[in-house]
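May I ask for a protein sequence together with how it folds?
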Amino acid sequence: MTSREEELLRQVEGLLVETQLDAERVAREDAPREEQRAQAARSGELDRDWKHVQRRIDAGQTSLAAVFGGSDPTPAAVRLRDQSRATIEEMELPDELAEEIAALREALP
């Protein structure tokens, strides 16, 4: 490996560490809000779909990432995704973000 390749590899590794640290920080900062959402879902303050999905999250059968990432095929997860998508579509987004979302949707199977 050349010294240039080694330097690039160190930079990539540094970025990976930074990204991991940022993700951990965001998770810590979001934890109280996430717990409030989870409690509201468990108690039925949200809707029936949220209560069902939260029960599955608590049981380790799914995650929010699976629900909103599309890998959870259950009817409640699909309805939450659809509802989220409709909410996002109603928002006025900057053109650049709207174009990025459209491109991501086209890339989905």
